[in-house]
Amino acid sequence: MRGILASELLKIRGKMVWFLVVLGPVGVILLQAVNFGLRYDYLTDQYADDLWGGLIGNVVTLALPTLLIGIAILASMAAGIEHQTNAWKQLLALPVSRSAVFAGKALLHVLLLFVSCTLMLIGTLALGFVLGFDAGAIPYGRLAELVYYPFLAALPLMVLQVWLSITMANQAVPLTVGIIGMIVGMFGSRFDDWVPYKWPHLINAAGEPLYSVACGIGLGVVLLLIGMLQFAGKDVK
Amino acid sequence: MMRMFRSEWMKLRRTVIWALAVISPLLAGVTGFLSAGDYENGQEGVWQIALGIMGLLHAMLFLPLLTGVFAALLCRFEHTGGGWKQLLALPVSRSSVYAVKFIYIMLLLAITQLLFLAALLATGLLLGFAEPIPWRMLLVSALGGWLACLPLAALQLAVSVAWSSFAAPLAVNVIFTIPNILIINSAQYGPYYPWAQPLLAMVPRDEMGFGAFNLSPETLLGVILVSFVVFLLGGWGYFIRKAV
């Protein structure tokens, strides 16, 4: 598995993938920097009791749609390498199991988004310092929750996009599914609890964010296993 | 030129591209229908409210992003398997190849806008809106949204021609479209941001007017025109010199 992941990492070099992994969080933080910079007095007045909470809330409203569409774009870029060069046959002719190839793509994807989410956390801290918020009052726990919980709750969506991008040669379909997912996901808090697009919002009837996270991890693993089985029996061009 | 239209048509027939044109209007229609509680039937301006709800969903993110998908799809057939060399080796000018592809993007967007209009009308008729249909407002909205896509289509065609990856041009599109979520709230900067124009053009300004919405149509048209000319000339100038 380590060999497969290493080869996946090698393949995405020079393909703008890392650039996007960095640009996502940097873009969100820069937009919030402009937002807070232009309306500093208004916003700091509005969040006077809880400056960090206000900042985190603002970051999350932009971070969620960015995460959802980022999932689709990165999955399509990683799978697109084989589609564009018609390399699926070649890749699968190597002495590696097909399910391991699928798991490798999925693992790479999760890793990329983990890096992206971590950068979001660092960026939020940095922006808070720049804005002169009290460094002693940083709610580390809440910050980590609001970055990593949605990431974990979105695991099923990651596996779905990886699976779609790998199975379909025409990347318009997985990307459009991703766009729909982003728009549906933005209004996701209104759905019933069972809809996976609601989970990254961490809202549920029980009022316990960890339930959403647990559902995400559970369904993510199930979808990964189904995807591995399906890919093992699939014809490739 | 007519023949080039037909050859492009052959490439597009029976592809997913047609299904893509339906999705956003369908989604907007369902949302509009489910928001029945938001419009009291006897109330004045009920069509305007429906247009506001559905237009926000359709034009804030979907319409600009869809423009990018259409552009990338139109170039996909050439990017796979060395199609650019084959196409440009034929006795056709590069400018007309570029023009035909651009016109097709706008054609697909026109179909999307008509379907959106149909979805809006269906919502109103199904819910039995008491007011007469305000044709003028609805047509201006659909047409305005379509015109506002001109600069976006020009830029997306340029990057789609440049990169063989399908996701890369779309990433450019997303990078510029996501700031919409913030920018439409700003009366100062929103009107000058090309990616916010489809929304500003589609949502009726007197009812739902907030932030960037209260601006004269002349200013909006100016922003659309200037950015369109810049993106189109840039993309076209690049394509006619490009080594394929």
Question: Can you tell me about this structure?
Answer:
The complex is a heterodimer of chains A (237) and B (244). With 237 residues, chain A is an all-alpha fold. Chain A has helices at 2-11, 17-38, 40-46, 51-84, 88-93, 98-130, 140-153, 155-167, 172-186, 209-232. Chain A is elongated, with a radius of gyration of 19 Å. The mean pLDDT of chain A is 88. In chain B, 74% of the residues lie in helices and 0% in strands. The model of chain B has no long low-confidence stretch (mean pLDDT 84). Chain B has twelve helices and no strands. The two termini of chain B are 22 Å apart. Chain B is mainly alpha-helical and 244 residues long.
Rg of chain B, Cα atoms, Å: 19 Å
Number of H/I helices of chain A:
10
Number of helices of chain B: 12
What is the H-and-E element order of chain A? HHHHHHHHHH
Largest sheet of chain B: none
Spans of chain B with pLDDT under 50 lasting ≥5 residues?
Answer: none
Secondary-structure-derived class of chain A: mainly alpha
Question: Poorly predicted ranges of chain A (pLDDT <50, ≥5 residues)?
Answer: none
Overall morphology of chain B: globular
Helical residues, percent of chain B:
over 70%
**Overall geometric form of chain A:** elongated
Number of strands of chain A: 0
Main sheet record of chain A: none
Measured as a percent range, the helix fraction of chain A is: over 70%
Average pLDDT confidence of chain B is 84
Distance between the termini of chain A: 24 Å
* The number of domains of chain B: 1
Pattern of helices and strands of chain B:
HHHHHHHHHHHH
Percent strand of chain B equals: under 5%
What oligomeric state is this?
heterodimer
